[in-house]
């Protein structure tokens, strides 16, 4: 049976992609962020996951305000990136785990989650940058299942609903008959706001509490409405919903393999956490 071997939550600021392209990993501005990943890559080399289930938010590459699903899942043989206008080079296509995608999709719909099924899906920086941070040579040793959550058009899915989606994904993975090791990625955040009167807003106290809750009280953030999350984490900080989906996939306790928190990169509180089921 398939087994979740880890949860990797990380920020996906577009500027990370430009820093990678320009080889700025040792630049004083970027080094504190990039230094968070060698221990994670060492863990990947040891554990060797087969499949990644990536939870992220689309930034207009697939969905825009005229067509914005609450939840969508990719069920394609491969996923390509395209130019988003950020100066991030496109990456090699990502092979899909079609069998697991359809299995999760069927289970979620039977669990009363109305998933949009995408047999073609482009993936933007929210999906591609975590992959490039984990495997910088960009030769993907894993197959992928993309799970997209709306963090753009209000009302957003509630934090509680996102956590329950994660629980349902976790049950679906556990019921998949293939002997596969699965890494779940939650992409986005943490606190940041890019426009309006609070542009540049960062809430370190909330971020650290949220990161602690991933281990000690995983449903802590489900008390907040979407408006509450904007107040606490900023308009774009609501991307932490992807972290909640990822954390919900593991029902039991987890331990921290490695974590990193750095302020700021591109007006964002950048955070990375690798969690392992106990």
From TrEMBL:
Example GO molecular function: ferrous iron binding
Family matches, as InterPro entries: Xdiol_dOase_suB
Pfam families (UniProt xref): LigB
Claim: Oxidoreductase is one of the keywords in the record: yes
Start and end of every Extradiol ring-cleavage dioxygenase class III enzyme subunit B domain? 8-262
Taxonomically, the superkingdom here is Bacteria
Keyword annotations from UniProtKB, A to Z: Dioxygenase, Oxidoreductase
Question: What is this protein called in UniProt?
Answer: Protocatechuate 3,4-dioxygenase
Species assigned in the record: Rugamonas brunnea
């Amino acid at each position: 049976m398939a087994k979740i071997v880890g949860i990797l939550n990380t920020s996906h600021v577009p500027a990370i992609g430009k820093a990678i392209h320009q080889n700025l990993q040792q630049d004083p501005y970027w080094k504190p962020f990039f230094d968070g990943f060698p221990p994670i890559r060492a863990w990947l080399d040891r554990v060797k996951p087969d499949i990644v289930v990536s939870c992220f938010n689309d930034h207009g590459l697939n969905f825009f305000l005229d067509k914005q699903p609450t939840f969508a899942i990719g069920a394609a043989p491969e996923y390509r990136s395209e130019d988003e206008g950020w100066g991030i080079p496109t990456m090699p296509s990502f092979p899909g785990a079609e069998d697991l995608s359809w299995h999760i999709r069927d289970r979620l719909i039977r669990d009363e989650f109305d998933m949009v099924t995408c047999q073609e899906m482009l993936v933007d920086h929210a999906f591609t940058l975590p992959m490039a941070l984990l495997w910088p040579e960009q030769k993907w040793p894993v197959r992928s299942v993309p799970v997209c959550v709306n963090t753009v058009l209000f009302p957003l899915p509630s934090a509680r609903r996102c956590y329950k989606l994660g629980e349902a994904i976790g049950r679906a993975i556990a019921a998949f008959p293939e002997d596969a090791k699965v890494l779940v990625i939650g992409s986005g955040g943490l606190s940041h706001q890019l426009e309006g009167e609070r542009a540049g807003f960062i809430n370190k106290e909330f971020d650290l509490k949220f990161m602690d809750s991933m281990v000690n009280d995983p449903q802590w953030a489900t008390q907040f409405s979407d408006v509450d999350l904007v107040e606490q984490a900023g308009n774009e900080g609501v991307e932490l919903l992807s972290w909640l989906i990822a954390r919900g996939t593991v029902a039991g306790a987890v331990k921290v393999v490695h974590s990193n928190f750095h302020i700021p990169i591109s007006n964002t509180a950048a955070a990375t956490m690798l969690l392992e089921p106990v």
